[in-house]
Design a protein that fits this description.
Blueprint (H helix, E strand, L loop, with lengths): L10 H26 L5 H5 L9 H25 L2 H27 L3 H25 L1 H6 L1 H20 L8
């Protein structure tokens, strides 16, 4: 006789587990990334920013639904992918989330727009890779990531502007 842990689980159980894991990973990314932000620091306030930079409050307003869409897309894609593809997709999501939170550490903690630019360029590449991988599994999940990828491209343009406007900005604390 099989124990209950050995019996096949309904498809909905795996689906919800994928969504819960994705939501937990995205929430952890948001927390880890937010802890590195120092928007009130003298260093950040002294940066020469472009006139088209959104106000500080806008970032929270934008990132909240973007993180929700990342969690939904990742959960949906993971729940629909099979075996090896699921592992590859999970790895792609993990790398993307590490790069996402890593930008805050590169930019704010290192006090380096240049390091932040390197990080955001890697995130952009990861976004393209993740969207392509998701599209092979679920086009709706891939489409749900396009606003996130677009915002990250905007952040890259903003970061480029900060590097150009602050060419000799040192890591003063």
């Amino acid at each position: 006789m099989k124990s209950t842990s050995e019996s096949p689980q309904p498809a909905t159980h795996g689906k919800w587990r994928s969504h819960a894991a994705a939501a937990a990973a995205v929430a952890a990314t948001a927390v880890v990334g937010a802890r590195a932000v120092e928007a009130d620091s003298a260093w950040y306030k002294a940066l020469n920013k472009p006139p088209w930079q959104p106000p500080s409050w806008a970032f929270g307003v934008v990132w909240t639904p973007l993180y929700a869409s990342v969690a939904w897309a990742a959960g949906r894609g993971l729940s629909r992918a099979h075996d090896t593809e699921r592992s590859r997709l999970a790895a792609g999501v993990g790398v993307n989330l590490v790069l996402n939170a890593g930008w805050n550490h590169l930019f704010f903690r290192r006090r380096s727009p240049q390091a932040g630019l390197a990080g955001t360029l890697l995130l952009d590449v990861s976004n393209v890779h993740l969207i392509r991988r998701l599209a092979a599994t679920d086009r709706a999940a891939a489409a749900a990531l396009t606003p996130y990828a677009a915002w990250c491209l905007f952040a890259t343009a903003l970061n480029v502007s900060l590097v150009r406007r602050n060419p000799r900005r040192r890591r003063r604390r």
